[in-house]
Amino acid sequence: MYYKLNGVTQRLSGAASSVYRPQGLRPAVPAVSPPIIFVSPTKLVSEAGSQVEYLGANKVPDLQKVFQRSDGLPVHLKRGLMDRLLYRTTMGLTIGGTLYCLVALYIAAQPSNK
Q1: What does the alpha-carbon distance between residue 81 and residue 43 come to, in Å, rounded to a whole number?
Q2: Which residues contact 2 (CB under 8 A, 6 or more apart)?
């Protein structure tokens, strides 16, 4: 004999074996297939032949030239003004956050005045 938890009384009650389904377990096969997450190609492989068409230009060779240039700059600053701004903003926020934490710790360490 199988038992089933009654949601109202919070007690176990007898159940037929055909009704038995433990809580939390679901059937192995979903009733509806999940939606496709990734975009499918515009052409099927059999239609495209051996060539694959890309919508954008390949920027990898140009970026390899930029990053492999030996100009003494670190990699995270090689692309110019935006890299410098992002780097300096990140460093400023890091230093500011560290100072704020140290001040907060100093204030928290002081005894309260009564």
Answers
A1: 40
A2: 14, 15, 16, 17, 19, 20
Contact predicate 2/17, CB 8 Å: yes
Closest by CA position to 2, among listed 10, 18, 52, 83: 18
Question: What distance, in Å, lies between the first and last C-alpha atoms of the chain?
Answer: 69
Cβ-based neighbours of 13, under 8 Å, separated by 6 or more: 3, 4, 5, 6
Task: Please list the residues that pair with 14 across neighbouring strands.
Answer: 3
Question: Could you list the pLDDT tens digit for every one of the 114 residues in the chain?
Answer: 667 777 788 888 776 665 556 666 666 666 677 676 766 655 555 555 555 566 778 888 998 998 898 988 888 888 889 999 999 999 999 999 999 999 999 999 998 887
